[in-house]
Amino acid sequence: MATFRKKPMSSWRATIETAFYANSVKKTTMAELYELALTQPEVIKTSEPVYMPEQFGLPADAMVLISNDGGVVGRTAKARRLVRELSRAENDKLRLMLLEAVYQFNRRPGLWLEGIVGLHPDFMVRAHLLSPVTDAKNMLDWGFNFTPMMEPWASTFRKSKVLNEPDILVFADPEWRNPDWPSGLVIIDESENVIAILGMRYFGERKKGTLTLGWTIGVRHNMVACHGGIKTIGNNAPVAVFGLSGSGKSSITNSHDHEGTLKPGEKVTVVHDDAFLIDFENNLTMALEPSLFDKTDAVKFNDPTVKYFYSAQNVAVMETPEGERKIVAEDIRNDNGRSIKSRDMFNHADFCAAPGKVIWLQKDTSLPPICKVNSAGLSVAMGASLSTMRAKGVENVDAKELGKLVIEPFANPFRVHPLVTDCQQFMKLFKAGCECYIMNTHAFGLPGDLVDIPKELSLKIVTELVRGNIEWRDWKRFSGLSIPRNGNDLFGPDFDKKYKPSRDAAYMGYLRERLQDRITYLSNKRDIEQDMDSSFIDPLVVARTVIDKVLNPV
């Protein structure tokens, strides 16, 4: 594999890269992986045709394959360990553990698949996945999700810009077991572009692990790492939305007509709904994946979108009287059913200009459905303290945690570079003229007295935002934010009645509490983790001070 060395190879990379060259490992293709996946005991062959299988070298009659992962159908964040954060003792312990894991892996037949992360010639990184033969379905899905190293993509890669980065290496062994790590173990050395994913079946660990390294490479090259969606509407500058799964990120990004509110001339072009990089120096936004890895909770039986499926995971199957095996989604079997599908289901592109508007999707009930942020500093602060709720079943966490509000900076739980680096990069973006907005996509009001914010309203808001039809007035009680002046005219006669922020003490006290949560979170990042600068907290402190004066006038 091509490797560019700026410094001596780390022991972590040396351990993982060496595993690829064992006698037990052979390079594989998408066609071979499909045939092997057909023989996996737990895999189901449906009667749903794979979308355009020939592009991957698959048989013309290839059918969508389904794998179900057992009790864990989401990511397990507690299993992740970053090499740069390890103590000396933990470093030594995990190094020995990885050495033993590789030895045991290499005693079994293994497969090596090459792929590409990035769809623009300015950013394409060679990636390698090493897994056991028994994990062929996950390897096939990795090839669907990223770009396998085959024509025509290989020719584009050979002509792409040389980044002088080590290839991405992903080592995944779902059969690994260790009593100290019952939920599995993920070891990441982002400086060397390597990750080990041990004891985990869920495909999303492989996808997000690979993206983690791709994002980190982009940041090292002065780009902005983005876990979000980006699209263009008509001739307007691109709009980027950032949010965790369940925040409306994919629903907003992938909608072609915004529930009928867009006009025929307002053509939507989607770049991606999950992962991209912004190169603001060259006014360029680049997708990292050619496919979509989307939830299937809204996919009905015989849904026309199934036509675009390459693969599916954690969904049910039924057999018709005619003997056809059909996908049954809607999260009936379990939470977080998923599919890998083509972007051909809508108009799409691999890249676009840098965004002209950034929207932080937040499930913070103290905030109305839409606010405009009036300064670069507050834009970064509100993104760094992005407040939301976890989507049901997306992460392997205790059920009681799902109902809690959490702060996830820039909606990217996969970040492994320092948070302050993201803050600095987004500050450059906003100082360059990108506008910032906050959309609450959940509900508004005090606990116990909430008004729902429907998806249709959120899409209508994005439509009017892009058209430039929203008139803004300062939200005097939240310094630095503006709210719609003409909300009733654009969104219905009861918009202000439902969503206009109250002046009463109960609401203002609740707004202050939620603002303080943000300040406390970022202050802990600064004081305990030394991963935050006061300049990115100060705009929130200014806003809290204004609320304090309202609650406690002199």
Structure in words:
The protein has about 550 residues and is α+β, with helices and mostly antiparallel strands. The chain is built from 14 helices and 30 strands. Strands 11, 12, 13, 14, 15, 21, 22, 23, 26, 29 and 30 form an 11-stranded mixed beta sheet that branches. Helix 13 runs antiparallel to helix 14 (about 540-550). The longest helix is centred in the last third of the chain and has 23 residues, at about 505-525. The radius of gyration is 24 Å and the shape is globular.
Q: Summary?
A:
This protein is an alpha+beta fold.
Q: What distinguishing features does this structure have?
A:
554 residues; alpha+beta; Phosphoenolpyruvate Carboxykinase, domain 1; Phosphoenolpyruvate Carboxykinase, domain 3; 3 domains; eight-stranded mixed beta sheet; 30 strands; globular
Radius of gyration: 24 Å
What is the typical, i.e. mean, pLDDT? Answer: 95
Write down the domain tally.
3
Strand elements, count: 30
Number of helices: 14
How would you classify the helix and strand content by structural class?
Answer: alpha+beta
Distance between the termini: 69 Å
Low-confidence stretches: none
CATH topology heading of the largest domain: Phosphoenolpyruvate Carboxykinase, domain 3
- Share of residues in helices: 25-40%
How does the overall form come out from the CA principal axes? Answer: globular
How are the SSEs placed, and which strands pair?
Blueprint: H1 11-19, E1 25-27, H2 30-39, E2 44-49, E3 63-67, E4 80-82, H3 88-106, E5 110-120, E6 123-132, H4 136-145, E7 147-148, H5 153-158, E8 168-173, E9 185-189, E10 194-198, H6 203-220, E11 224-233, E12 239-242, H7 249-254, E13 268-272, E14 275-279, E15 284-287, E16 291-295, E17 309-313, E18 316-319, E19 325-328, E20 338-342, E21 351-352, E22 357-362, E23 370-373, H8 376-384, E24 387-389, E25 405-407, H9 419-431, E26 435-440, E27 443-446, E28 449-452, H10 455-467, E29 472-474, E30 481-484, H11 487-491, H12 495-499, H13 505-527, H14 538-551
Parallel strand pairs: 1-5, 3-17, 4-9, 6-8, 8-10, 12-22, 22-26
Antiparallel strand pairs: 2-3, 5-6, 5-7, 9-10, 11-12, 11-13, 11-14, 14-15, 15-21, 16-20, 17-20, 18-19, 23-26, 23-30, 24-25, 27-28, 29-30
